[in-house]
Amino acid sequence: MEKKWSYKDYQVEEGMKPGSRHFQYFFNITRGGEKKCNYCVWIEDEALSRFDQSGDFDSIISSQKESWIKWVREKIEAGDLHSKVLRIGKKEQKEIELSEMKEHLSMD
Fold it and tell me: Could you state, in order of their start, the residue ranges of all structural domains in the chain?
């Protein structure tokens, strides 16, 4: 993971899924060394140009990360520690329980 920070009693590690060809930015949430959940921002390939015309992952992260961090903080404050994906498509975005995803996402 690229960056570590804390919020309330939780530790957050964030970064792109290693080796991924698709945009999958993870937030790994732990408390006292115990894993609580993962949140993932998944931008579908055809939606990348909504954020950066060239689809450059670093540019997208730099311009959008603060809003994703806000989303993570809101989840923690609400006690919503279920692994979730914020899936962003060309026309819409939706929040999905990781367990309900047809495609499997993992940190590996």
Answer: 3-100
Tokens of 62: 């730099």
Inter-residue contact 38 to 26 (CB < 8 Å): yes
Backbone angles phi, psi at 91, to 5 degrees: -115, -15
Mean pLDDT across the chain: 91
Burial class (CB in 10 A: 0-12, 13-18, 19+), 33: exposed
Closest listed residue to residue 94, CA positions, set 106, 104, 86: 86
CB 81 within 8 A of CB 40: no
Res 19: pLDDT: 85
Q: Tens of pLDDT along 45-84?
A: 999 999 999 999 999 999 999 999 999 999 999 999 999 9
Whole-prediction pTM:
0.88
Question: Which residues have CB under 8 Å from 34's CB, separation 6+?
Answer: none
